[in-house]
Design brief:
Number of helices: 8
Helix content: 40-55%
Largest sheet: 4 strands, parallel
Number of strands: 4
Oligomer: single chain
Structural class: alpha/beta
Radius of gyration: 31 Å
Shape: globular
Distance between the termini: 97 Å
């Protein structure tokens, strides 16, 4: 057996090259890992995660639940957009013809604004949740009532609402693509256009 346990020069060069490659690889891996977002750096709420890509993440809020601290703390923490669940619908905002009531709607709106949320309005023209007085109208009278309702609600919130659901569920459920047979549809096929033009002019 030989007297020396050390490898020869050629083997030592190969070992040095291998160690250098391993060192470069380790430095590169460490650099890559430093560049990755850590769990603590990742956005921790749904709203913040959506905001990273220019989106918002919203929820419907019921005014009657605003006294529930668990409900409001989750809503405030996770979401950056609020829609009133029912409080801005026709039966809630104009229960009697020509008599608007925004008490519940304003409660949702004010909570949202006080907590830094944008507000989406819902909804101005819809075949459902109409008050009894509107359900009993038809033709040009109903059409004018729709226009007056849009103007009344939007005047109250002018400049305050980020977006409006002007017309809701105008088409049939399913894949037919047909218009829903509603009292609003029976006022004339242009009722959707009239609703949007009215809303645009109002705000």
């Amino acid at each position: 057996m030989g007297s020396s346990a050390l490898p020869g020069p050629r083997v030592r060069r190969k070992i040095r090259g291998l160690l250098l490659a391993l060192l470069v690889g380790a430095v590169g891996l460490a650099t890559a890992l430093v560049g990755l977002p850590t769990a603590s750096a990742a956005e921790s709420t749904l709203g913040a995660a959506a905001a990273q890509s220019g989106r918002y993440f919203g929820t419907a809020i019921a005014s009657g639940r605003l006294g529930d601290s668990t409900y409001t703390s989750i809503a405030n923490r996770e979401f950056n957009s609020v829609t009133a669940e029912n409080e801005m619908k026709i039966d809630a905002t104009q229960p009697q013809r020509g008599q608007f009531n925004f008490t519940a709607a304003d409660r949702v709106y004010n909570w949202a604004v006080q907590n830094g949320k944008q507000v989406r309005g819902h909804t101005l023209a819809w075949h459902s949740q109409q008050p009894g007085w509107m359900q009993n109208l038809s033709g040009s009278t109903l059409r004018q009532a729709m226009i007056d309702h849009i103007n009344g609600v939007m005047a109250h919130y002018k400049g305050k609402i980020a977006e409006w659901d002007v017309v809701n569920e105008a088409f049939q459920d399913g894949n037919s693509g047909a218009r829903r047979d509603s009292n609003l549809q029976r006022t004339g096929n242009d009722w959707i256009e009239v609703a949007f033009r009215t809303a645009r002019a109002a705000d």
